[in-house]
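Input/output pair, single chain:
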Amino acid sequence: MKVEIWSDFICPFCYIGKRRFEHALEKFSHSDQVTVQYRSYQLDPTAQHIPEKNFAETFSELKGISLEQVYTMNQQVAEQAKEVGLTYHFDTMKYSNTFDAHRIAKLADANEKEAELTERLFQAYFTNSELLSDKNTLIRIAEEAGLDKEAAEHVLDSCKYRNRVNEDIDLAKQLGVQGVPFFVFNEKYAVSGAQPEETFTQVLEKVWQEEQEKPVLQSLNPNENKTSYCTGDGCENK
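Output:
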């Protein structure tokens, strides 16, 4: 089974949804036969960190809502994160542009380190209050995930993987994705949002069962037609 997950590293529900899905996957009896691929998405392509403003002030201006509303929303989200073992520090969070982080994630994917890097990037933003648009921060996180430092520097000093990131974003548009996290199972079953763990469990079981029940190929031969074929035992007409 293949699971594709569209997410952004500054999306609070993406990290929560990721953890809920992981909890469900850990309990899934066929987890060793599930491949997870992370795909890029940007909630705010124009995002930039303004040092003199904290996250709440920046978010308040971006969304046109009061600071009080932002604080209330953040508290509610932080409580949901805590329920799945995550710690969010909205008071010190640094609003970041994530395009370069997504490019580093593609480098990680090419080196089979995508899962490790994705987790570290989420943790860096929501728990450690790090700036994900900072080159040195991204290089350090890449190294911690087991990537080569020079390779990470090369990516950030060039346009490498830019097309790969944009392809993911374009594909999301084609699929009609309007928000993240967005999960696609075997390229035909979709689950949107940070659904409860039970939902992911049900989807995993349903997709697995349906895939096992259907034939790998469906014959389109007309039943009444004779045909000729060969097997290891010989050839015949039927």
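Residues 58 and 64 are 10 Å apart (CA to CA). Residues 67-83 form the longest helix (17 residues).
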